[in-house]
Write a structure and sequence with these properties.
alpha+beta
Length: 128
């Protein structure tokens, strides 16, 4: 370690019901993977959904994928490597969650957010 070097910051981490939940202190959000899907809670304080609620969210996302992909075509090329994560920070309160699609080969820094509640898409927004 050099004279002006600092110790790397620890990355807070919890394991709950076999899920490893990590806090990203630089961006200030919690992240975890469940059934190969990335979930975020985009605030320093929040409540993560239970496993049955996560299962329900994943079922909803799977059912809405065709509609989301159809809407994505308004802004970007679809099926060129895009992926998504699910932000669940508001789920405990109002049962909404957001599916954010990004990272396709032709997308640049574009992202498209779908706000979902009760199995329906409430809002769609795109930006960088």
């Amino acid at each position: 370690m050099g004279l002006f070097s600092s110790k790397p910051k620890l990355q807070p981490k919890l394991t709950i019901e076999g899920m490893e939940i990590t806090y990203n202190s630089k961006s200030e959000f919690w992240e975890f993977k469940y059934r190969d899907t990335e979930f975020w809670v985009c605030s320093p304080v929040g409540t993560a959904p239970t496993k049955p609620e996560l299962d329900s969210i994943l079922e909803t996302v799977e059912a809405l994928k065709p509609a989301m992909k159809s809407r994505l075509k308004q802004w970007v090329a679809v099926d060129d490597g895009e992926s998504y994560f699910i932000e669940v920070g508001d789920f405990a309160g109002d049962k909404t969650f957001e599916v954010t699609w990004a990272e396709g080969a032709s997308w640049g820094d574009m992202g498209v957010d779908f706000t979902i509640k009760d199995g329906a898409i409430l809002d769609v927004s795109a930006g960088d």
